[in-house]
Amino acid sequence: MDQPIWITFIVAFVIMNVLLISMAYATWFERKVLAAFQDRRGPTRTGWHGLGQPLADAVKLLGKEDLIPAGADKIVFRFAPVIVFVTAILSAAVIPFGGTIELFGREINLYITDLNVGALFILAVGSAGVYGIILGAWSSANRYSLLGGLRSAAQVVSYEIVLGLSLVGIFILTGSLSLKSIMERQAETISLGPIDLPNWFILSQPLAFILFIVAAVAETNRVPFDLPEAETELVAGFHTEYSGFRFSLYFLGEYINMIVVSLFASTLFLGGPNGPGSDTYWGLGLVWLFLKALIFMFFYVWLRATIPRFRFDQLMGVAWKVLLPLTLANILVTGFIRLIANGEVF
Amino acid sequence: MAISTGQSARDDFRDIEQSPYGKPGEVISDTAAPTGTLTVTDESVLDSGEHQMTLNMGPQHPSTHGVMRVVLKLDGEVITDCDPVIGYLHRGTEKLGEAHRYAQITPWTDRTDYVAAPLNNLGYILAVEKLCGVEAPERAQYWRVIMAELARIASHLVWLGTHALDIGALSMSLYCFREREMILDIFESFCGARLTTNMMEIGGFSRPIPDGLVEQIRNFIRLFPGRQQEYSDLLTANPIWMARTKGVGIISPEAAISYSLTGACLRGSGINYDVRKAEPYLVYDRLDFEVPLGEHGDTFDRYLVRMEEMRQALRLVEQALDHVEAMDTPMMAYESPYVIPPHKGTMTTAEDMQRHFIWTIKGFNPPVGEVWQTIEQSKGELGYYIVSDGGPMPYRFRIRTPDFVNLQVLPHMAQGALLADVVALIGTIDIVLGSVDR
């Protein structure tokens, strides 16, 4: 549905601000959930249940001195956090938050753009984000940062492959790379005898779902794959030398990445905004999408509270020896089923 | 421009011309500085053309358990050389001991291994009692066992929490400190202090057991096994935990003996040596407990050994408490001339007050001689060596701390390990820098 460019700008503006605010509250959510796991209370002093904590953090980070190490490559050092932040924000451009709605007598698309290669766009932008990490690590002139950057490079290269290939099954079933088509495809229902099930890809592609989640956790550098910033080995990894606002750009980038990956996973596997009543009320669709993304965010925190960190060689071993063969097998099986369903074999 | 990070107190670095880490405060020229684009190819970083990088871990690194410094040579992430540098927390406890009267030294022993202060107190007090020929009453000995074993659990909880945290299990440290808090509360009820307890006295205990303490300990005995099972559930069968600890930092039995390891580091390699069994002190020979042993000598076995030691320590606490609960005998060996007389009349009669004053100001003069007393501390064999010249202060005061000796094995274990393993290895030795540096 075509719409005037200024409406798209407004939608983009709203989405970006919602993303930034939800990022701020993602940190609050993580702290609170982690505190619950760890038998403590989390932030309580800044406002009701510590709800003002993200604001206090932002003020603190903006007020910090901006330190640049003497030996740093200053241009790259300044530029690197921006890459992480921009690529994280950019991925949100193709996430559909719903279909087309009518508001104030105008038709408005609840997405910024419907790229026909939307899924590939997210993967591509996600892997571009790692340049920010590697360049930041390289330019800090710190050996811990350097090791963090090298780990990040190796990790992203390995898990990017798994992440991309785990989605091929869905592309085979949908016949499209557009996230909007994938979302619309999942609005259908499949009947299994007396019960109607939503055609969510988590049901038809369960293995791909698990593989995608594992790879996504690695892509966002979260526990147990948080090796680039393994604080007990590498102090703070790639952002050891960063402070103040530049550090907060990395921080923002990480959490926005988490949110985008959660939205991406909800769109791909859990039907996106589809849910009871979402056909009639578009607002309900947004609520469903939010709740689905929240499940993934909770999962991220759950992992962080529960399990230790992999070692570098084990991380690579998991990617190449376990996950990659499984994704390839998944593609093979899905492809065969598709061919059989189309009546092209047997 | 870069400034080298300072100079170690260790002897071989005193000749700063020879120091591989630069002179203290020396400004290394711009070309030698590890700039972003030159880090790996720089001559100062590479050692004779090989692809090695020197990484200085500590003394401000979060995982070195205080202020230890490890100088690593890395080939990629593989460690080719590991050199622990200690001395950043050296406070001269042994020399301080030679300038303080016997009763004044106990607080200094708190500050060596500050996570297990009652055990340090105990070793020192036993050494002084051996020197003076004092034997504490039976009831006091049982209470000493209770406090020592609780301190062992408290110390192992700090080890478990920090070790798991180093490997990335974030929540474990908070769970462990929650239970340690209960033990510290017991210490607080017993002696008024939590960390630096200064709990043991020469001759027994001069103060009565406070009301409610037994119930407090019983409560801990009831709660702790379930809590420890939770830790086990989170770690023992966790594939990532196993991958990170099994086969990492293997110490063969021969190596364990030749490095004179003690404690869980020795028993993890399968050698049955526990001072409580080998040379029983206090009433350990009357109590029933087992010494857990490892099989492979790796980090996972040492983890299992320490977990089992906590269970056995709890058994000991329970047995001793059962035994001592109904006892109403004296707690202090007042009949000995080396034990401070009762405080009873200090506030009312002049003679008692004067005697107490003289005792406090001058202390007592033990017989001439030397004494060596070891106990099984939470980290290994803790020994005190005291030489007395008959004066009120020791002529020589020496502490053999277990983690100082155990730390020697770190380069042996780190050879060929990965960078991430170093933190696991430091954790598995269970060091407290206050104890290593003294």
Could you walk me through the main structural features you see in this protein, from its secondary elements to its overall organization?
The complex is a heterodimer of chains A (346) and B (438). By secondary structure, chain A is mainly alpha-helical. Chain A has one domain. Helices cover 65% and strands 5% of the residues of chain A. Chain A has helices at 5-37, 53-63, 74-91, 118-139, 143-166, 168-174, 179-185, 201-204, 206-219, 231-234, 244-269, 282-306, 312-341, and strands spanning 100-103, 106-109, 189-192, 195-198. Chain A has a two-stranded antiparallel sheet. A two-stranded antiparallel ribbon of chain A has the order 3-4. In chain A, a hairpin with a 2-residue loop joins strand 1 (100-103) and strand 2 (106-109). Chain B has 438 residues and is mainly alpha-helical. Chain B has 2 domains: 2-85, no CATH class; 93-336 and 364-437, Cytochrome-c3 Hydrogenase, chain B. Chain B has 16 helices and 8 strands. Chain B has helices spanning 93-97, 102-110, 117-132, 138-167, 170-191, 213-235, 239-245, 253-258, 264-267, 275-278, 299-325, 350-362, 402-406, 410-414, 419-429, 433-437, and strands at residues 2-3, 27-28, 53-57, 69-75, 78-85, 369-377, 380-388, 396-400. Chain B has a 3-stranded antiparallel beta sheet. In chain B, strands 6-7-8 form a 3-stranded antiparallel beta sheet. Chain B has a two-stranded antiparallel ribbon with strand order 1-2. In chain B, helix 3 (117-132) packs antiparallel against helix 4, helix 4 (138-167) packs antiparallel against helix 5 and helix 5 packs antiparallel against helix 6 (213-235). Mean pLDDT of chain B is 82; it is low at 1-14 and 24-47. The chains are: A mainly alpha (346), B mainly alpha (438). Chain A binds chain B through residues 34, 37-40, 70-73, 76-77, 138-144, 146-147, 223-224, 226-227, 230-235, 304-314, and chain B through 1-2, 33-37, 39-40, 53, 55, 61-63, 77, 164-171, 174-175, 178, 234-235, 238, 240-241, 243-244, 418-423.
